[in-house]
Amino acid sequence: MAEEKSPQPEAEVAEVKSPSSNPNAGESGTPAASIENTPSSDEQQATDFPSANAPDPTAANPEVNPNATGDKPTAVGEKPAAKKPAAAAKAKKEKPPAPEDKPFNEFIEQEYLPALKSALAEQGVKDLEVTFVKDKIQISGLSQNGGCWQVRGNWQSGQRQFSVYFPDEDINKQKAFSCATNGAKASILESFMIDERKVTLDLLVFYTIQRLNAQKWLAWN
């Protein structure tokens, strides 16, 4: 008796749809937003997507993010510091001119004479008279062709008198000194401050006081 063969199952046939039946066939699965922000291959364009390496300038803290836009925030109630004009800042750095930078006559009249009076008053000289004149040097036996600027001082009703001479009208150049008592003319013209190359107001007053003290004319003698 012939063996019956079981019928073979029909092969499953996968349904193949034609491209025309699937409207999305062949299209990319990339989201629409990515496609919209993807730059063209022909032209470089910026996108709204933040860089992976740099924080979003509009979202990051401007105090710590150098890429942040806008001004740095100030503390509550604090007003932004006002910017000073460049001219005002420059003027503030400039130092006022030194007394010795003044013209010779102005320096003697405005600086040296007042300072000398004050210094001698501290040494007990109460009736000092000082003048600044251009005249011949009042030295006994000295022949002169012309005069020079000199500071003359006297006190005790003229019993003590001295002169500081400036032949070159310059405190840093040649200077001389003379002194006399009882209204007589001085007999010696001395070099004065010959070792000082750069003369200042303080030095000029100091050396004058020192020279008068050497005559034992001041309070401590």
From TrEMBL:
InterPro entries: DUF2996 (IPR021374). Residues 94-104 have a biased composition (Basic and acidic residues). Transmembrane segments: none annotated. Residues 18-27, 35-50 have a biased composition (Polar residues). Residues 1-104 are annotated as: Disordered. This is DUF2996 domain-containing protein. The lineage of its organism: Bacteria, Bacillati, Cyanobacteriota, Cyanophyceae, Coleofasciculales.
